[in-house]
Design goal:
single chain; mainly beta; Jelly Rolls; nine-stranded mixed sheet; 1 helix; about 35% strand
């Protein structure tokens, strides 16, 4: 007896031309922090990065090679500048145990309800002794504790947050976590992203891609750590994250995926998926692979949307009558969206144990076991 596993990776990517103005990509001002109103002369001066603000009592920092910087510890991901925030810190001399810093920017226009947007950026975290010119100098920078990982990300809102939107208001320096009730929605970097929370990002940059489905009207994006409560870090330790090199646009996906499942029926694999919204979608190309790199086309499933456009949920299914079988659970199927212009882009889906890492979001994995 062995375990038959079929791993199904739903992968949607396309290069499309959108006719609707409502589907335009929203831009992030000064996405790489290069434009400044003045060179920073010390900490707490994020407002000198054009288009970025300090929304609460926390004091995020702006680093630029033209002035205050910590380039001897971490150089910019690109250009000359980046921003940084304390995500957690324990420092009893100042009575600090519940302290978060945030940075906020206003998008070029409001997000459209029901549209899923993707955005990418570079992220790093300080590790080791404090840079000589950073206060408090007694802090040793460490990884976030395991139970405090998975809360870094972005909250989208119709108004900019203020100190009153934090869990303790003006108490604790007005710098506690933003309450869950604030904002229209948030997207977080999961704790399973070890590149962000572990050794890979210690004084080094890694790239993150996130997606957010808008409720409508969101104009502000705020970044930081959204975990409520005091940290479990020992006294004199802090977790401090750096942000740089945002892709300048929040790009609307042509398809918003609601779910994707796979069910074993005898020796066949039954794939089902539902879209919440489609724009200029010609259909889905189904492919499969044994190692996630070389793909074999199986079939093409046309879009059920009239002219490829729909704002209503649409359901699809496909039966793979003879799926590839291996005992180590490394078989993939993927769906690729094809735009009305008949152009599409392939991006790799890479196996990492029983997970899959995609360069674009919309990758669901399902392993079906049978005796």
């Amino acid at each position: 007896m062995y375990q038959k596993c079929y791993r199904h990776s739903l992968f949607l990517a396309a290069i499309l031309v959108f006719d609707s103005l409502a589907m335009q990509a929203q831009t992030i001002p000064n996405a790489d922090f290069e434009v400044s109103t003045a060179c920073p002369t010390g900490q707490t001066q994020i407002a000198r990065a054009s288009g970025w603000t300090r929304p609460t009592g926390g004091t995020p920092d702006y680093f630029n090679s033209c002035g205050y910087n910590i380039a001897s510890t971490v150089s910019p991901s690109s250009g000359n500048a980046y921003a940084g925030c304390f995500t957690e810190i324990m420092y009893t001399p100042s009575g600090i145990s519940n302290y978060k810093e945030y940075i906020t920017t206003q998008l070029s226009s409001p997000l459209t309800a029901g549209v899923t947007y993707t955005f990418s950026f570079s992220i790093a975290h300080l590790y080791g002794a404090s840079p000589a010119n950073m206060m408090p100098g007694a802090i040793n920078y460490v990884d976030l504790p395991a139970n405090e990982q998975g809360y870094i990300g972005a909250v989208f809102s119709t108004v900019s947050p203020v100190t009153a939107n934090t869990e303790n208001g003006s108490a604790n320096f007005g710098a506690t976590a933003l309450v869950d009730a604030f904002g229209s929605g948030r997207v977080l970097i999961p704790a399973t992203n070890t590149a962000v929370y572990d050794t890979a990002s210690r004084n080094a940059w890694v790239t993150v891609t996130l997606q957010y489905t808008a409720t409508g009207g969101e104009e502000y994006m705020t970044l930081g750590q959204f975990r409520p409560g005091a940290t479990s870090l020992p006294d004199g330790q802090g977790a401090y994250y750096l942000f740089d090199n945002f892709v300048p646009t929040l790009t609307p996906l042509p398809v918003s995926l609601r779910n994707f499942t796979a069910t074993l029926q005898g020796t066949a694999a039954w794939l089902q998926w539902t879209t919440a919204m489609e724009q200029h979608n010609k259909g889905f190309e189904l492919q499969r692979s044994t190692e996630g790199r070389n793909w074999e086309p199986i079939d093409f499933i046309p879009s059920r949307a009239a002219d490829g456009n729909s704002t209503m949920p649409l359901s699809y299914s496909y039966t793979d009558a003879a799926p590839l079988q291996v005992p180590t659970c490394t078989v993939y199927d993927k769906l690729m969206l094809t735009g009305a212009s008949n152009t599409a882009r392939y991006n790799p889906c890479i196996s990492t144990g029983r997970q899959c890492v995609c360069t674009l979001i919309l990758c669901g994995l399902y392993c079906i076991s049978a005796a």
